[in-house]
Amino acid sequence: MESTHVQRRDVIGALAVSGLASLALAAQPQEFIPAGKKPDGPCPPPEALGWDAVKGDYVLPALPYAANALEPYIDAKTMEVHHGKHHAAYVAGANKAVTELFRIREGGDAGLVKHWSRELSFHLGGHVNHCLFWRMMAPAGKGGGGQPDGLLAAAITRDFGSYEKFLAHFKAAAVQVEGGGWSWLVYDPHSTRLLIVQQEKQQDMMPTGMRPLLGLDVWEHAYYLKYQNQRSSYVDAWFNVVNWPFVQCLFDTYTRK
Ligand code: MN
Question: Of 5, 22, 190, 203, which has the highest C-beta tally within 10 A?
Fold first, then answer.
């Protein structure tokens, strides 16, 4: 174990020395704030999740709560399969795509760049989305549910008119995703305002540079066991487990001066 720690320190130290301070921060295994706890300071970047700097691989992070902790809104079986099978497959797929693109650079078939690039986009999109998704939820009444407050609430009112108008827009975007995809509340650093965007599959239709605040997975694998074809019922129920303190933490990270 000690050698692993030493290696990790060396890697982080080397990144810091090379001037890549943000990468050094991202390389540290950090936990986001626990469910229900207000952030004391800025959040570590979302990129800190799901990456092992020693292995140089994407890795599946543990769920930050028990698989049954989001019941009755999200059932334990769905959480187990979603995290342990679907997310794990995205992790494997992203690592595989990176490896295959490396092999192409080392003399492989350059005609396969398009194929493996598409694989990378899909699987890495899935990995990043789900790393965030698990943290964007918390058990109801223990960090999950309620409404945003503070500067995030003020920004929502400023950019959508009211929390209720944001909610209606976000839910409609989620319900209307065609096939598998996501609804996202994002921070647009160009305009410094909040936007709601749809995402098809794990990666399509997201404008470049948007910073994720809140994402809802509306792939059938996220809800079908409990809600079958009633996606709108799942979307309504999901807001009982939204981890607004975490969303606030991300917002503070993106907007702090
Ligand atoms: Mn999913």
Answer: 203
Verify that 108 and 189 share a domain, yes or no. Answer: no
Question: How far apart are the CA of 217 and the centre of ligand 1, in A?
Answer: 6
- Say whether pLDDT at 237 is over 60: yes
Q: 219: CA distance to ligand 1 center in Å?
A: 6
Q: Where are the beta strands (DSSP E) in 8-164?
A: 51-52, 57-58
Residue 196: φ, ψ to 5° = -110, 125
Residues 27 and 117 occupy one common structural domain: yes
Q: How high is the pLDDT of residue 45?
A: 55
Nearest to 201 by CA among 113, 129, 96, 93: 129
What spacing in Å lies between the alpha carbon of 154 and ligand 1's midpoint? 30
Distance 220 CA to ligand 1 centre (A): 8
Q: How far, in Å, from the CA of 104 to the mean position of ligand 1?
A: 30
Looking at per-residue pLDDT, the higher value among 31 and 119 belongs to 119
Domain boundaries, position 243: 150-255
Q: How confident is the model at residue 256 (pLDDT cuts 50, 70, 90)?
A: confident
Q: What are phi and psi of 128, to 5 degrees?
A: -65, -45
Neighbours of ion ligand 1 (CB under 5 A): 217, 219
pTM as predicted: 0.84
The number of beta carbons lying within 10 Å of the beta carbon of residue 40 is 7
Query: Is residue 117 included in any domain, yes or no?
Result: yes
Taking the centre of ligand 1 as the mean of its atom positions, its distance from the CA of residue 210, in whole angstroms, is: 20
pLDDT tier, 137 (very low <50, low <70, confident <90, very high otherwise) = very high
Is residue 246 scored above 70 in pLDDT?
A: yes
